[in-house]
Amino acid sequence: MTDPNITTANSTHKAWLIEHDPHVDTSWINRCIFGGEYIIALCGDSPVGFIRYSWFWGKIPYMDMVYVVPEQRGRGIGRKMFRHWEMLMLAKGGDVLMTSSVVDELEPQAWHRSNGFHEQGRISFGSFQPQSEVFFIKDLSC
Ligand SMILES: CC(C)(COP(=O)(O)OP(=O)(O)OC[C@H]1O[C@@H](n2cnc3c(N)ncnc32)[C@H](O)[C@@H]1OP(=O)(O)O)[C@@H](O)C(=O)NCCC(=O)NCCS
């Protein structure tokens, strides 16, 4: 496999994002594309992964979702997207990064830790999500 190109997603990636990011509806996907809040990994013209992010308090970059297609996992694509996003957030003035994971999803948590995140606490969302959500931060000033 050639080294993937990491870039900000645009409207030509919309159909792929709708197919591979089912956690949010199409109007939110449109909003994130318009706001430059998707990082996408491309092998040639073919998307193989994405990061979707937002801004907690309008100030702290929050990685809402990271995804690599199953057949391309474990080849460094997730890390490459993360590093691209981290540099982008630094350039935009981010001092701290945030992300989170459902408490029983241990593999993504290990992946977050391998990218320098540290657990900061757990929150329950009542009937919306029975399991707690584990929150992580990465302090870029350290
Ligand atoms: C989590 C995910 C994005 C990781 O992407 P990836 O491209 O497979 O990961 P990478 O190849 O970049 O891994 C980078 C490093 O993390 C490690 N790593 C990867 N997956 C890991 C896991 N499940 N547990 C622990 N470490 C892991 C790799 O060994 C590598 O370390 P190294 O550089 O020291 O060898 C991918 O597995 C995925 O899409 N999972 C399903 C979606 C998901 O769970 N998203 C997170 C929701 S919170």
TrEMBL record:
This is GNAT superfamily N-acetyltransferase. It comes from Phyllobacterium ifriqiyense. Residues 1-141 form the N-acetyltransferase domain. Gene3D superfamilies: 3.40.630.30. Pfam families: Acetyltransf_7. It comes from the Bacteria.
